[in-house]
C-alpha cells in the first residue's frame, strides 16, 4: 500500500495476492493452523491500498450468519468472518476469549460486534490469553482499542488470572498514551503492590506526564 503510482499498485496487486494465497495454502499443508489464522487476520494490513477484493466468503461462513442478516459488510458478516477464520463456533468458547483475540489483532469492528452478541467485556480469569480484553489492548498500546473497550464498560480494576490489572500492562508496554487513556477513566494508581511500590511512583520515576 506504499506505492505512490497507481500503475505500480495495479501491477503489484496480483503478485502479492498470489504470494499471500500460496502462503496461506502452505500453512494448511504443513498443518500450521496458528500461522494460517494470523495471516488471515493480517490480510487487510498486508494488502492495504492495493486494488483487490479482500475477505472473500470462506467455506462454511453462512452457517454463522443470522437468517435475516447475510449482507456482505454487515456487522454480523464481519463477526462471522472473524469467528470462522479463527476456528470458533461461538462468541464465548471454553478456555478461550474470542473478544480477547479480537483485541489482540486490534480488530475493533469484531470487538464491537462481539459485545453486541453479549461477549463478556471483562473476561480473562481463565483464558488462554491470560489478560482481559482491556489488558490485551493495554499491553500492545492500542489506544483506540482501550478507549473503545472503556466506552463499552470494560472495568480497568478487574484483575486477570495472574492478578494483573489492565493498567499494569500499560507499564509493560511503556506507552504513555495508553496509560493516559486508561487513567482518565477513574483507575486508581495509588495502591501499592506486595513490594510496596505504587504505579504512580513508577510513572514519576519514568517522568511520564499524566493527569491524575
Automatic annotation (TrEMBL):
GO terms for cellular component: cytoplasm. Keywords: ANK repeat, Repeat. It comes from the Eukaryota. Pfam families: Ank_2 (PF12796). ANK repeats lie at residues 132-161. This is ANKRD27 protein. It comes from Symbiodinium pilosum (Dinoflagellate).
